[in-house]
């Protein structure tokens, strides 16, 4: 507990104008990047990296932390208002939030998303400060077979969460996994599925897929329904005369979601965060799926479930706290953002490990304080100040709005890799996602299959190589057995309830 | 007459301008320089390149910014360097994979080392064998003996299959007559660290610098370094030369520019980086993070690189012939 | 509804299309060669082949299900606009480097505005917005973030 107390000292550092300034600047930049389709908070930090070398290490870390937290939150803004999540971790928020937006309740949806992010982020930051050593050791208990089963669990959940369309879920997820195999093999330096071209050897980048699947496909969907959306325009217009009060969710709604949902989702997010490699989208999704499983109103999901928004946003912001654990304890980054923060530490001559945590707490504690303050104070403040402007995005004439989105999304996919080919891939995936949506296949499932597929394969092949290819290893390893059991329990609980009438089994 | 004068005037002006711009060209650099890093931001290579470059830009008086272009075991980033304009405003940092793995595997047909001019080598980091401090292996000979008693049982964590570290363990096995169970953890040293800490493996093969934080707090122990000179930062770790094993292999960072970059530009870059290399700031930092500085200037680096690549190619070919791997 | 009509429904054609893709994928997967040791189960072709078979199974289930369904009312508008956007985007991408960011984006935005019927009747506003959008993102990417956008008529 000593370490916790020493970390509390970090809040003091925030009292300096310089540090405070960097935190707020980082938060605003992170919010902008996280919300814009085509940009991510990882890109923001990477672009600001040179600046972090010229300033002191404390403001630099504080800024990275607030960018991280802001980026996770702000994905929900565009997800709700224009159905294009700014980051994959807000995919579920797009489904539920946009449904509410179309019913004229956009401000309310944004409020719930902010509340979830706020609660989840704060809890994640507190868990980080209080339990980092224990959490770090716990994370080490899970080894490769366990990781395989965990990823398998996530994928199975994705497929069955919409139990009316399991076969389509399998198609979508498998499609994502297959697409991810294009490029260099996960373990060996041989190209796969490059069909003799040089371009495909570099594989399919995540950014173009995300941009294509969300931004471009939404563009195409809107274009197809151009003349039909008069009605929804009217509904949106209703939501435009909003007062700042409308962003604050009424207490009755919060109670309906239930404090337990927020806390449970935050724990899920933190737990997934402490495992290196698992990311915000997995955290958001697992929390969402579990909230749906235990919900008293599962039929709301897909049509504007506030509970779903709360769970997803709470988990993805809490994951931020968790991701710092393996990075600070062992020098093992949990996700791309913490990998860059690790670089900042190293450049400044700091080495991760117990020594850093015990003896140089004064250097890293402000970073934790920044996470906490960004979550608890800056998120609601941002919504309160800028909320009405967020909603008014949709009052921009549609032609102008979607043209602008097209430009920023495509240029964004160029900027990520300086590759024309990836821009083209973004277009291709946009078309693919368009058809997937038209025929009711889950784009979220495809994307999660794409993101998690390589991990699944790597963990599978490595686990099998321990024992000469004997799959019994998945049952003899405690961690793997635990997750497999969890998968079966989950599947049973979800499938037990009566499926929709015209279900395809 | 008037026309001739005018023509003469124009010609003179043109010549004057041309020579002025010639002078202007000699005033390299005039704008920002892009440094391609073919690995991810925050990683080991990225850190070293950025640190050195931030110091180097002070002597060149322009901004030098690092750009991470990942993919294809560094093939994507260096491939782009090869097709960049040779005007000195784009350079890049090559690592072992760029020089050996990618050409040998022939992953990208348009990838050709002749398209590059090497500027200087800045670090050369031998690989090493580290073990869990809780394990019974106190010296490398303990490990070799244990491996002989249990062939194919002892797990060794390496990085990508077919990469440098894999090659190292394969050669080690040949030289010592041992057989380990080789387990691959792609993605740099971080997953290897995780594997040792979670007790999934007891032995890992990579550079000491990659494991510096764990070596410092005593969680792992270095058994041997694949080098012939003792590493000053880790005086307790013997070299393979000392231990009688004829194996030296390691990674390195070499700066390069597209092949037709003018000589004055290359010289300017070389001296900027040499100044940065020699600076106290860099030398102290490098000792702190456990990386081994090792300078080799423009005159010598190309010969060294060719030699190193050739010898590694023939070693890999030998392994192919021995049936250990296929091409 | 006779069988041919059922087959031509897009909801059946789509999985059929995926089936063809999967077959190409499987054929390619079988030609993947592992580089190290006789790894059969743990090799680089295991996962792709497994995924291909799972995909086949799922696609068959889906196709049969869609086939059996009664005709649904056509939803959504015509595909003309989306198609035009795809074509315009393709051209934009192809010309992005050769022409440079500014000319290519100006042209792209003009095309999009026309497809979306934006300010078609007010040429002054039309031109203003085209320039505004192009300039805004130029300022954002090249100006604020120092990203290198392809120069005018530059190539690389």
From TrEMBL, chain A:
Where in this chain does the entry annotate a coiled-coil region?
none
DUF112 domain segment(s) = 20-448
Per the UniProt entry, the signal peptide is none
Which ranges does the record mark as transmembrane? Answer: 20-49, 61-82, 109-131, 138-160, 166-187, 199-221, 267-289, 324-347, 367-386, 393-412, 472-495
Source organism? Halomonas campaniensis
Listed name of the protein: Tricarboxylate transporter
Task: Provide an example Pfam family for this protein.
Answer: TctA
- For this UniProt record, give its keywords in alphabetical order, as a comma-separated list: Membrane, Transmembrane, Transmembrane helix
UniProtKB/TrEMBL annotation, chain B:
Keywords for this protein: Signal
Q: Where is the signal peptide?
A: 1-26
Pfam families recorded: TctC (PF03401)
Could you tell me which InterPro entries the record lists for this protein? BUG, Bug_dom1
Its domain of life reads Bacteria
Q: Which family does it belong to?
A: Belongs to the UPF0065 (bug) family.
Protein known as: ABC transporter substrate-binding protein
Species whose genome carries this gene: Halomonas campaniensis
The top of its lineage is: Bacteria, Pseudomonadati, Pseudomonadota, Gammaproteobacteria, Oceanospirillales
UniProtKB/TrEMBL annotation, chain C:
* Membrane-crossing residue ranges in chain numbering: 45-67, 79-95, 101-118, 125-147
Question: What keywords are assigned to this protein?
Answer: Membrane, Transmembrane, Transmembrane helix
Output the InterPro entries linked to this UniProt entry: DUF1468
Q: Name one Pfam family in it.
A: TctB
Its protein name is: DUF1468 domain-containing protein
Q: What are the DUF1468 domain coordinates in residue numbering?
A: 14-150
């Amino acid at each position: 507990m000593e370490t916790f107390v020493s970390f509390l000292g970090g809040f003091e550092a925030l009292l300096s104008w310089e540090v405070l300034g960097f935190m707020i600047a980082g938060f605003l930049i992170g919010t902008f990047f996280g919300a814009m389709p085509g940009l991510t908070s990882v890109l923001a930090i990477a672009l600001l990296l040179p600046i972090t070398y010229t300033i002191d290490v404390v403001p630099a870390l504080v800024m990275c932390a607030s960018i991280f937290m802001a980026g996770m939150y702000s994905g929900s803004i565009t997800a709700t208002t224009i159905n294009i999540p700014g980051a994959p971790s807000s995919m579920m928020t797009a489904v539920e939030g946009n449904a509410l937006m179309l019913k004229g309740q956009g401000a309310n949806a944004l409020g719930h998303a902010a509340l979830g992010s706020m609660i989840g982020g704060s809890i994640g930051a507190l868990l980080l400060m209080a339990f980092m050593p224990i959490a770090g050791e716990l994370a080490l208990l899970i080894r490769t077979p366990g990781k395989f089963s965990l990823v398998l669990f996530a994928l199975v959940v994705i497929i069955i969460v919409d139990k009316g369309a399991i076969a389509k879920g399998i198609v979508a997820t498998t499609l994502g996994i297959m697409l991810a195999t294009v490029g260099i093999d996960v373990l060996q330096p041989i190209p796969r599925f490059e069909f003799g071209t040089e371009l495909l050897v570099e594989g399919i980048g995540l950014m173009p897929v995300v941009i294509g699947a969300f931004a471009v496909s939404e563009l195409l969907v809107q274009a197809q329904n151009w003349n039909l959306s008069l009605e929804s325009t009217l509904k949106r217009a209703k939501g435009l005369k909003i007062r700042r009060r409308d962003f604050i969710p009424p207490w009755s709604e919060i109670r309906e979601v239930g404090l337990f949902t927020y806390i449970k989702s935050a724990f899920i997010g933190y737990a997934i965060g402490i495992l290196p490699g698992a990311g915000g989208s997995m955290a958001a999704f697992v929390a969402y799926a579990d909230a749906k499983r235990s919900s008293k109103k599962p039929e709301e999901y897909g049509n504007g479930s506030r509970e779903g928004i709360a769970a997803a946003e709470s988990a993805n912001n809490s994951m931020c706290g968790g991701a710092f654990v393996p990075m600070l304890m062992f020098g093992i980054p949990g996700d791309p953002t913490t990998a860059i923060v690790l670089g900042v530490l190293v450049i400044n001559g700091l080495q991760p490990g117990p020594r850093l945590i015990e003896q140089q707490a004064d250097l890293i504690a402000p970073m934790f304080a920044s996470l906490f303050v960004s979550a608890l104070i800056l998120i609601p403040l941002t919504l309160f100040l800028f909320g009405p402007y967020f909603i008014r995005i949709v009052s921009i004439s549609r032609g102008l709005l979607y043209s602008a989105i097209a430009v920023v999304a495509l240029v964004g996919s160029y900027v990520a890799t300086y590759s024309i080919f990836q821009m083209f891939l973004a277009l291709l995936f946009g078309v693919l996602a368009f058809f997937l949506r038209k025929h009711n296949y889950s784009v979220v499932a495809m994307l999660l299959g794409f993101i998690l597929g390589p991990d699944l394969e790597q963990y599978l092949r490595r686990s099998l190589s321990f024992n000469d290819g004997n799959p019994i290893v998945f049952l003899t390893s405690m961690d793997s057995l635990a997750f497999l059991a969890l998968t079966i329990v989950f599947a049973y609980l979800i499938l037990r309830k009566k499926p929709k009438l015209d279900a395809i089994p | 007459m008037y026309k001739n004068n005018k023509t003469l005037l124009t010609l003179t002006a043109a010549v004057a301008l041309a020579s002025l711009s010639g002078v202007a060209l000699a005033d390299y650099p005039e704008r920002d320089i892009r440094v391609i890093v073919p690995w991810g931001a925050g990683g080991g290579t990225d850190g070293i390149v950025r640190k050195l470059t931030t110091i180097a830009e002070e002597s060149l008086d322009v901004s030098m910014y690092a750009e991470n272009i990942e993919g294809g075991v560094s093939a994507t980033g260096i491939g782009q360097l090869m097709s960049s304009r040779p005007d000195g405003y784009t350079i890049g940092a090559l690592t072992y994979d760029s020089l050996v793995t990618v050409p040998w595997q022939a992953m990208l047909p348009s990838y050709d080392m002749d398209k590059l001019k090497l500027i200087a080598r800045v670090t050369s980091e031998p690989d090493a064998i580290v073990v869990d401090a809780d394990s019974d292996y106190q010296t490398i000979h303990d490990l070799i003996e244990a491996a002989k008693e249990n062939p194919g049982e002892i797990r060794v964590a390496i990085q990508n299959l077919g990469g440098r570290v894999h090659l190292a363990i394969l050669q080690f096995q040949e030289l010592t007559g041992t057989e380990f169970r080789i387990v691959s953890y792609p993605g740099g040293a971080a997953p290897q660290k995780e594997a040792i800490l979670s007790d999934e493996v007891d032995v890992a093969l990579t550079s000491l610098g990659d494991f510096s934080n764990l070596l410092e707090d005593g969680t792992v122990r270095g058994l041997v370094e694949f080098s012939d000179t003792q590493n000053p930062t880790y005086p307790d770790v013997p070299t393979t030369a000392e231990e009688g094993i004829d194996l030296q292999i390691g990674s390195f960072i070499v700066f390069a520019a597209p092949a037709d970059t003018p000589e004055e530009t290359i010289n300017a870059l070389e001296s900027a980086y040499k100044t940065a290399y020699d600076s106290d700031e860099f030398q102290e930092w490098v000792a702190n993070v456990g990386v081994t500085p090792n300078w080799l200037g423009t005159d010598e680096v190309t010969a060294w690189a060719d030699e190193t690549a050739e010898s590694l190619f023939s070693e890999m070919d030998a392994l192919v012939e021995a049936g250990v791997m296929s091409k | 509804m006779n069988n041919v009509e059922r087959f031509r429904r897009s909801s059946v054609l789509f999985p059929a299309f995926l089936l063809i893709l999967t077959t190409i994928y499987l054929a390619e997967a079988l030609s993947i060669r592992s580089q190290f040791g006789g790894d059969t189960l743990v090799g680089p072709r295991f996962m792709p082949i497994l995924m291909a078979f799972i995909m086949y199974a799922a696609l068959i289930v889906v196709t049969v299900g869609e086939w059996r369904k009664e005709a649904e009312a056509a939803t959504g508008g015509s595909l003309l606009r989306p198609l035009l956007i795809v074509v315009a985007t393709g051209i934009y991408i192809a010309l992005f480097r050769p022409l440079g960011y500014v000319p290519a984006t100006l042209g792209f935005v003009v095309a999009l505005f026309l497809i979306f019927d934006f300010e078609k009747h007010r040429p002054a506003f039309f031109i203003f917005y085209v320039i505004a959008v192009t300039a805004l993102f130029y300022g954002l990417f090249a100006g604020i973030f120092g990203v290198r956008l392809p120069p005018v008529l530059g190539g690389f």
